[in-house]
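Hi team, as promised in this morning's meeting, here are the two structures we talked about. I've kept the exact order from the run log so nobody has to guess. The first one is mostly here for context; it's the second one we should focus on when we meet again. Sequence first, then the predicted structure tokens.
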Amino acid sequence: GIPIDLSETNPELNPLLLPDIIDAPLTDKGRNQCIEQRIDKSKYLGGVELIVVSPLVRALETACITFHDHLPSTDNINGGEEGVVRWIAHEGIREELGLLLCNQRRPLKE
């Protein structure tokens, strides 16, 4: 690939400034990588009580695919049942690299 100059402010020279990538979803490659690396809770996550994730779309998708076995059921969406892992999407842990549109969030209405 071609190196990207992150200090460049021209979207023609720095594709990370294109509006199309604001809070971009995972690519097919990213989804496949998550599936390949899916964590089996019986091997690695015994006793997990909480998963905290960035609210950016790609981070949420990554977590949902990777921790698929820990998604709450519709019967227990609030995690009140014993053994159910609670999920939090927290604004304070999202990526923030200023200029890059890929690290900006979509409006909540989207």
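And here is the second protein, the one for discussion:
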Amino acid sequence: ASLTAKVDDLSASIATDEADLKAATEIRTKEHKDFAAEEAELVETVDMLERAVGILEREMAKGGASMMQLKNAASLSQALSVMVDVSAMSSDDVSKLRSFIQSTQGSAE
């Protein structure tokens, strides 16, 4: 009788552990999915910023009127607008960069 009780206790313990493992696996899967999505967004943002830096460097090397406008821009947002006006960046990239800048400025305040 004592062995049967011990087997029942161990079976219940195993069932509980398996349920806990299943719940933990589901949480880890969801967290991994969230992380992958955020990482992809950050990689895209870094790529856009690298392209913007490249464009700025190229335009500065040219020294054209558009760079004079950029030098006189009061904010990064204005600089991005000038870049769009001279077709240096796609409007989609600028929209994403503006959103990124606004979110970082909002969190800094």
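Starting points for discussion:
Residues 9 and 104 are 54 Å apart (CA to CA).
DSSP finds four helices and no strands in the chain.
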